[in-house]
Amino acid sequence: MAESEWRPVMHPAGFDNDLRVALEELSAGRWMAVRTLLARTDTSHGWGLWTYRSQVLGASAAGSDVIEAWESEEPGPTVTVMRARVAVERALRAYRAEHSTTDALWHEALAACGAAVREAPDNPVPWTCFLALAVIDEEQQAAEHRVRAEDPMLPSGPWGLLKRAHALDPYNREAYHRMLMYWLGRPNPAAVSHADAYARWAISRAEQPAGADLLMLPVYVRVERWLRLPREALDMHWLNSYAIHDALAAFDQWFAVADPADRSLQDLNCLAHALWAGQRFAEAERVFEAMGRHITPRPWQYRIADQGNRDQLFGFVALCRAQCVNVAESASRSAVPPSGRHRSGP
User: Fold this and answer.
1) Residue 22 CB neighbours (<10 A)
2) How far, in Å, CA of 35 to CA of 31, rounded?
3) What contacts 168, CB < 8 A, 6 or more positions away?
4) Helix/strand/coil (H, E, C) string of the chain?
């Protein structure tokens, strides 16, 4: 395919074809493919893939009663966890929309998470769900949301929930990102600073290579800082030496060494954007290559005039990718000695 013909695709399943099939069945009101997919998802080397799949499926099912139908016909631990997923998604949507049903849905989700903990005690997802709900408790009324941090420089928060998720699945990506979202969602001027301190704490204690993908946390914080800047400062933010350092650290210590099957598509998109914006085109080209044609809306959508315009989004990402590919190809050509001049020895 010529570069001029390259066009991205955007689907919640990303690279995961099995998940894509299950989502299609789910959208048709059928739950058996979901049950089969989760049953076949290998957790012997960690819960990362199971966590990701259940999150995407829960978000898709939140607007229907498919999971409730499954639970009524075949109750069990897996569907109880999925019921918690759906309940959490509904509560968070109501919270973001400032809907009057938020409080009722929040308590319903808390009850669903409690049931999931009891029925699936070895699964980290219920604790990740509790973490996701913590953002709704803006006043930290619940005791579990004002636990002291191990580091005295960090504020109190839902540290115990993160610890429970970590104990069941060390460095679970979603759990650590939910904690980041908690700090970013705090209703105070220091929210981003607290999120940054948390991100630095997380990567400082993460064992390698198991916790390598946590190196993306500071890059996500960079996105949030960027969104809060005046428009005229947007591009310079990514050219800051500290921003470039964060992006290159994630590239060298996560992207370059991680199993391609374990890379999050959202992380790849976020890293590609950071490297492109920091004018590290050669590294960005490698990340674009790993992404294939799959993109996510964030953070690219913040670069276009109409964030909901898919054609604008696709066109912008295609231009960014083409720029990185062209720079990489030019560098490759310049590194090849002219024909007839190459000498293999002194």
Assistant:
1) 25
2) 6
3) 47, 122, 123, 124, 127
4) CCHHHCCCECCCCCCCHHHHHHHHHHHCCCCHHHHHHHHHCCCCCCCHHHHHHHHHHHHHHCCCCHHHHHHHHCCCHHHHHHHHHHHHHHHHHHHHCCCCCHHHHHHHHHHHHHHHHHHCCCCCHHHHHHHHHHHHCCCCCCHHHCECCCCCCCCCECHHHHHHHHHHCCCCHHHHHHHHHHHHCCCCCCHHHHHHHHHHHHHHHCCCCCCHHHHHHHHHHHHHHHHCCCHHHHHHHHHCHHHHHHHHHHHHHHHCCCCHHHCCHHHHHHHHHHHHHCCCHHHHHHHHHHHCCECCCCCHHHHCCCCCCHHHHHHHHHHHHHHHHHHHHHHHHHCCCCCCCCCCCC
Residue with tokens 């009101």: 29
Average pLDDT taken over every residue of the chain: 93
pLDDT tens by residue, 218-259: 999 999 999 988 766 667 899 999 999 999 999 999 999 999
Tell me what pLDDT residue 86 has.
98
Task: Give just the sign of the alpha carbon dihedral 246, 248, 253, 254.
Answer: positive
User: What is the distance between the alpha carbons of residues 326 and 18, in angstroms, rounded to a whole number?
Assistant: 34
Taking only the tens place, the pLDDT of each residue in 139-155 is 999 999 999 999 999 99
pTM tops 0.70, yes or no: yes
- Using pLDDT thresholds of 50, 70 and 90, give the confidence band for residue 192: very high
pLDDT of residue 334: 74
Q: Tell me phi and psi for residue 157, to 5 degrees.
A: -175, -165
Average pLDDT over residues 266-290: 97
More confident residue, 200 or 4: 200
Q: What's the pLDDT score for residue 338?
A: 53
SS3 for 20-50 is HHHHHHHHCCCCHHHHHHHHHCCCCCCCHHH
